[in-house]
């Protein structure tokens, strides 16, 4: 990783949609609020921000470059196109895990529709990027409903990430669609930082501060908090 005056940060945010037909799709409750908050914090740090976002109802942060996408494949293509130029990938997007084997060109009538869907896994964007990274720092997110730290550590190791940020879903007011969150930030070296319940914007600032210190350890000037 070369010395540079500005960190180029690539962030993904929001859900993806995997369409069954023109009227129906598989997705999740992600709103993109956490990813957009991280983009704002990164911009305040003086970083350059490329923001790849699934379908969200949010205003892009001033100063960022927004790349709207819909499906997991579209997100992969856009991330892949921007990855070589970035220093840091923060993958906050909640990519749909499955897509229909067949996407119908016309809306399927309810009376004629099969009640069992044939599904296939979507592409693992994080794993794909890690496998071809040069010196980029890669940060994943893990939204878990149980055994949060255990599952996050497993994902950190399996995907060979530098950092993983975990949160618990299924609790009112936090996680998906909530205004607040509680995070655990796990590093490759085994350290774990707990970020107590706070607004997503406040947490984003704390997270970017941790990442800034890590990038400084890679020999880059990441600005000041």
What does this structure look like?
By secondary structure, the protein is of the alpha/beta class. It has a domain at 8-101 and 116-142 and 204-217: CoaB-like (Rossmann fold), CATH 3.40.50.10300. It is 27% helix and 28% strand. The protein is built from 5 helices and 12 strands. It has helices spanning 33-44, 72-83, 125-131, 148-158, 200-217, and strands at 8-13, 18-21, 24-26, 48-53, 65-68, 88-91, 98-100, 119-121, 137-144, 163-168, 180-187, 192-199. The strands form 3 sheets. The chain has an 8-stranded mixed β-sheet, sandwiched between helices. A two-stranded antiparallel ribbon has the order 2-3. Strands 7-8 form a two-stranded antiparallel ribbon. The longest helix has 18 residues, at 200-217. The radius of gyration is 18 Å and the shape is globular. The two termini are 21 Å apart. Residues 221-225 have low confidence and may be disordered.
Q: What's the short version?
A:
With 225 residues, this protein is of the alpha/beta class. It is built from five helices and twelve strands.
Cα shape: globular
Largest sheet: 8 strands, mixed
Q: Spans of 5+ residues with little confidence (pLDDT < 50)?
A: 221-225
The CATH topology assignment of the domain at 8-101 and 116-142 and 204-217 is Rossmann fold
User: What is the CA-based Rg, rounded?
Assistant: 18 Å
Q: Which superfamily, in CATH terms, is the homologous superfamily of the domain at 8-101 and 116-142 and 204-217?
A: CoaB-like
CATH hierarchy: architecture of the domain at 8-101 and 116-142 and 204-217: 3-Layer(aba) Sandwich
Report the top-level CATH class of the domain at 8-101 and 116-142 and 204-217: Alpha Beta
Give the topology string: H per helix, E per strand.
Answer: EEEHEEHEEEHEHEEEH
Instruction: Report the total helices.
Output: 5
Percent helix among the residues? 25-40%
Number of strands: 12
Average pLDDT figure: 88
Q: Which structural category do the helix and sheet elements fall into?
A: alpha/beta
What order do the strands of the largest sheet run in, or round the barrel if closed? 5-4-1-6-9-10-11-12
Strand fraction: 25-35%
């Amino acid at each position: 990783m070369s010395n540079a005056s500005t960190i180029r940060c690539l962030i993904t945010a929001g859900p993806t949609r995997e369409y069954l037909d023109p009227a129906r799709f598989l997705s999740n409750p992600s709103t993109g609020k956490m990813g957009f908050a991280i983009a704002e914090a990164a911009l305040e740090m003086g970083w350059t921000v490329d923001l790849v976002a699934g379908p969200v109802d949010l205003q892009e942060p001033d100063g960022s470059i927004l790349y709207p996408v819909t499906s997991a494949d579209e997100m992969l293509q856009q991330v892949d196109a921007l990855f070589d130029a970035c220093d840091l990938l923060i993958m906050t997007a909640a990519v749909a895990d499955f897509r229909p084997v067949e996407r119908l060109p016309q809306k399927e009538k309810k009376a004629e529709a099969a009640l069992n869907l044939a599904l296939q896994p979507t592409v693992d964007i994080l794993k794909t990027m890690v496998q071809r990274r040069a010196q980029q720092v890669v940060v994943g997110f893990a939204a878990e409903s149980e055994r949060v730290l255990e599952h996050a550590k497993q994902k950190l190791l399996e995907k060979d990430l530098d950092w993983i940020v975990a949160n618990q879903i299924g609790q009112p007011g936090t996680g998906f669609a909530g205004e607040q969150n509680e995070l655990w930030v796990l590093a490759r070296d085994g350290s774990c930082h707990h970020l107590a319940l706070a607004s997503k914007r406040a947490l984003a600032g704390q997270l970017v501060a941790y990442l800034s210190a890590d990038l400084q350890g890679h020999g880059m000037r990441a600005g000041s908090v």
